[in-house]
Amino acid sequence: MKRAITFLAASAALLTAGAARAGDVSINLTDVQARGGRLLVALQTDDQFMRPAGFGEIVDNPQAGTVTVTFRDVPAGDYAVSVLHDLNGDGQMQTSDIGIPEEGWAKSNGAALRGPPTFDQVRVSVPSGGTQITEPMFYWDGQIPGQ
Length: 147
Hints:
Low-confidence stretches: 1-20
Structural class: alpha+beta
Number of strands: 8
Shape: globular
Distance between the termini: 67 Å
CATH architecture: Sandwich
């Protein structure tokens, strides 16, 4: 009986410690354009990157300006922010024949990208108390993002 109580106490302490290391992550998306459709916002670990996994939120018919999405109780660690302004509802990025995104998008550290991202290029560290991440949305207008 004493062993069971010790195990339960130790388990409760571990669960409490894990919860203390989790925090909220607010993602502020600037330069959103009111084009209808929906924003598909994801916060993903390396193992989840570019897959239908991780923390996710959908914002229907986003308004122009800044849109904020908050994910609750995110454990500390390295993540990537991925956002698609899905105009046609298919859940996939539409691209031109030469690979230029035809729908709005955002990635953590996205202004530096010049091709498909790797997790290391877009990694952000989330501390134990959570954080705020601000990223601009990019919409193809004939100019290279970040220029």
